[in-house]
Amino acid sequence: MQHSASVSATHVPVLLDEVVAILCPLLEQRRSGRFVDATFGRGGHARALLARLSPDARLLVMDRDPAAVDQARALADTDSRVLVRHAAFGDLGEIVPAVFDGQSVDGLLLDIGVSSPQLDDAGRGFSFMRDGPLDMRMDTSRGISAAQWLAAADDAEIAGVLRDYGEERHARRIATAIVREREHAPVDRTLRLASIISECLPRQRASRSGRDAGAARAPHPATRSFQAIRIFVNQELRELERALHGGLDLLADGGRMLVISFHSLEDRIVKRFFRSHFNPPRPSRHRPVAEDAEAPLLSRVEGPLRPSQAELARNPRARSACLRWAEKRAVGQS
Fold first, then answer.
1. 334 touches 327 (CB < 8 A)
2. Would you give the end-to-end CA distance of the chain in angstroms?
3. Quick one: DSSP state of residue 133?
4. Distance (Å, whole) CA 288 – CA 113
5. DSSP class per residue in 189-249
6. What is the average per-residue pLDDT within 192-206?
7. Which own/partner pairs from 197-200 qualify as long-range (CB within 8 Å, at least 24 positions apart)?
């Protein structure tokens, strides 16, 4: 059995040292442990964990991107501790028990960002910085593309997605422009959509001149819209909710769940979920806590942890990353 420790040259995993430090005690103590990386990507986190995993432990890796699954299978060919499944992270509640015969897991990682190879591949349609088909699907073998959805949705639906998933305050204006422009030609290319968005926004917001330092750092006017459409097309928030509930049920006593998010909506969901299972019910004179009330499922909640300045210097794309983690309460633990 060969243990691979090389990291993909095309993608830099975020908060890698922090992830390893949090899981390291479990990797060392639970020599026959079961661990899950539900968002393999290009395997940076998985390889770092494998470098510390005992020969008797197992690491299940999942991804819904076929390209990521191909790389995961190549890794599994060189390391018998690795198990691979082509699945969305929201499906872990069904996938993990089937793989591990219903046994609990000791550590679970979710990194729900878009990988650099996905952003850099114009054919995937995630980036407004290069022209390509407006696809945006994580799994290109199923579902409808962003272009197909934009061709059929009315302006109210488009505006709702931009507002709810991108927190875009110009959602109505952008939606109206998209519907108007698709009457002349399909909105099926990334640069066409980015251009429509830029041209319909107020001059100050749309400016990308970079004449001063502030303008140089300003986000592209299409950033929020592209993010919102991607989240909607892939149902990412629903997948996250499913993964959190499924993951908590799967954790062994003392097991740890780590979630790396890149957007305030995602982070809010994680924070509220962890807190809801960590804080004990508060008694009041109107509603005292019953003596047989169940203890919270989580004994420890930590975060947010953010990239260091040193990491940001190496990998500017990590700037919005946020890590939260929780530990499941052991039976009998007060």
1. no
2. 42
3. B
4. 42
5. BHHHHHHHHHHHS-HHHH-----SHHHHHSPPTTHHHHHHHHHHHTTHHHHHHHHHHHHHH
6. 87
7. 197/221, 197/222, 197/225, 198/222, 200/170, 200/173, 200/174, 200/176
| Element of type H or E holding 318 | none
Q: Give domain limits for the chain.
A: 16-116+236-328, 141-233
pLDDT above 70 covers what percent of the chain?
Answer: 87
Class of domain 16-116+236-328: alpha beta
Q: Which two tokens stand for residue 176?
A: 């109206």
* CA 34/CA 32 separation, integer angstroms: 7
DSSP 3-state of 48: helix
Q: What is the pLDDT of residues 65-79, one digit of tens each?
A: 999 999 999 999 999
| Distance from C-alpha of 11 to C-alpha of 165, rounded to nearest angstrom | 25
16-116+236-328 and 141-233 have identical folds: no
Grouping H, G, I as helix, E, B as strand and the rest as coil, residue 107 is strand
Which fold, 141-233?
Answer: DNA polymerase; domain 1 (1.10.150)
DSSP states along 9-43: TT---TTHHHHHHHHHHHHHH-TT-EEEES--TTS
Looking up tokens 């968005």 gives: 197
pLDDT per position as a tens digit, 242-295: 999 999 999 999 999 999 999 999 999 999 999 999 976 566 566 554 554 567
Asked if residue 128 lies in contact with residue 160, where contact means CB atoms within 8 angstroms, the answer is no
